[in-house]
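Notes from hallway chat w/ T.B., transcribed later so I don't forget. T.B. wanted the structure written out for a chain they're using in a teaching module, and asked if we could keep both sequence and structure tokens in one place. Agreed to drop them here.
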Amino acid sequence: MRYSRANVKHLRRHAIYPTLVIRQGRVVGTWKVSRARVRWNARERPSVMTQPPAPVLPAADGVSPPSPRGIPLGSPDYRRVTLALFLAGFATFSLLYCVQPLLPDFTAEFGVSPAHSSLALSLSTSLLAVAILCAAALSEGLGRRGLMFGSLVAASALNIAAALVPDWTLLLVMRALEGLALGGVPAVAMAYLAEEIEPRGLGRAMGLYIAGTALGGMLGRVITGHLVEAFSWRIALCGIGVAGLIAAIGFLLLLPRSRNFSPRPGFDVQYHLSAWRRHLAVPSMRWLFAMSFLSMGCFVAVFNYIGFRLTAPPYGLGQAALGMLFFVYIFGIVSSSAAGGLTERFGRRAVLPVGVLVTAVGVGLTLPDGMETMVAGLILLTVGFFFTHAVASGWVGRIAVGAKGHASSLYLLAYYVGSSIVGSAGGWFWAEGGWSAVAWFLLTLHGVALVAALRLRALSRV
């Protein structure tokens, strides 16, 4: 249907908005909606028509358009969602990073080098990065809730299996499969929040999810350290696996089913490739992905090799004392929760560079030999990292236009690839120059991260 220029002026003057009504591929009439009246002009009489149809927004297949029925901030369902995703984040990070304080034990028991021992973590994060892309695509057809639950159960079972294998190679195989299984949680959780939570409450919900990952990362390491000291590293891995199963059951019982998501039948490779290309074509998204790579890589590298420094002279810490060091994650829980409120008040563009600077100051404070300054540095590093991650991950859902699961998967792909590459590269710097070489390497990367944050500030308006 065409409107002349005179018709358009008339429609605008009287605030009349024509809406085509299409049935079985052809136009059957129009609604003319104005301040004064609603009029139906039919080309054929509709069978049942008591009110004008709601406008339908175009959307990519498998992705529902934004809905006004987002779960409101403070409602009972909002609390259920945030608690369920908190448990999912807790289980994911406790299962993934429980081996980090065990790297010196692996070196001693299996006779491998420090860099080689880090494969117990790097293999998991590398395959997790690949699995995230597949999981985001699969969730478009299988649904969000069931895929996340299945991933948590499978990863918990594989963590228990890793504790029972007799040699280093099989342990690495179990850890690699565990990384694949965990891929069904992070990207899907971010997409679920972006689809189901109203925009006003999204920043806070994402912050609570990140707080769950911080708590999982902390307790996974702390509990592991104490169980190793009391029993063995095998008992420690079993204990974390059982805790993951319990968290998975709580997640399933709490999380409401998706309301604003319609599964896409089948698996269209071209559709998924097109969705990923569309997100990569947005400059601000590319800088967000770079931020994800750098911030996570630096954070993991610090905690991969700080254990080797602190178990050696002059510190000589045991596993239980080393595990207690991970209580600095409490500050990450607080900072990630606070990030949502600060973002709503000051905007993402203002607060993201602050998080990067705080993280860099934390790395710098680990350079002196004093234990007090080192602990202070780890606290600031943790605060800055979780603050940065909470802000950046929430930003992805705001910038992405459609296919939010694909956008989240690319962010987390960069996140875990950074964990694997920078985390393993830190081993080379440790072998060549000790902790000072590791710290200066990471400070250089934080300089690049600050450039990314400033570019985002210039490019984005959301």
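Follow-up for T.B.: The first helix runs from residue 5 to 13. Might be a good example for the class.
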